[in-house]
């Protein structure tokens, strides 16, 4: 009887070990290491997280983070510009290993993909035409006002949630939507706080009003395919390390470079 129990234990242990080996072989992290390249989907155009400079190179917060990630993995980095409306499908179908594109963690997206821990927390704020009698978001919710935002992002969700009476118009890019307000064709623009802060420091300065109290709580996270605990574990440990390593100061320097300073604007104008 003891021999039978021992044999069963050995059999179960061997099967569990085999399962672990198979999971690791299928893991995106293992595939990245075997390939020698980290493939990142992103949509250039979301300042300051990813955009193109004057020479056509993709730069930004997420790009610097991806470079550090690839370096710590010991692999090359391959940035894959991807349209926002197809970026989740690109990940799910294996066209890239990870989405690093300022993506807000939502329950709806989480049904299709998994997220690592948040690396930045933002919220939706409002850029408004100067001279309007409105003082708050609530004041803008009237039929005579036109509110614009980008199509297919959390800004659109927030706009539809908070503005039931105003006219809502969506655009393919955040730049086009913001330009509508700047050119007087719309009354207000709803979008992520970092983008709006930077817009106000440049094109919107003296022309628009920033209602900077966030309408929403929105953590940004890296997205990966479901069923990949090894990759998720590595990403969360990587994020924890870069956040807490104050000697190197990578994370603090990254926030200073892209979210507080505006020197990088000269590279994209």
UniProtKB/TrEMBL annotation:
Family listed: Belongs to the bacterial solute-binding protein 3 family.
Keywords: Signal
UniProt-recorded Gene Ontology molecular function terms: ligand-gated monoatomic ion channel activity
The protein's name: Transporter substrate-binding domain-containing protein
PROSITE patterns with a match to the protein in the record: SBP_BACTERIAL_3
The keyword Signal is assigned to this record: yes
Keyword Metal-binding: no
CDD domains to which the protein is assigned, alphabetical: PBP2_Dsm1740
One Pfam family per UniProt: SBP_bac_3
Residue span, Ionotropic glutamate receptor C-terminal domain: 37-261
GO (cellular component) term, any one: cell envelope
Superkingdom of the organism of origin: Bacteria
Signal peptide interval: 1-18
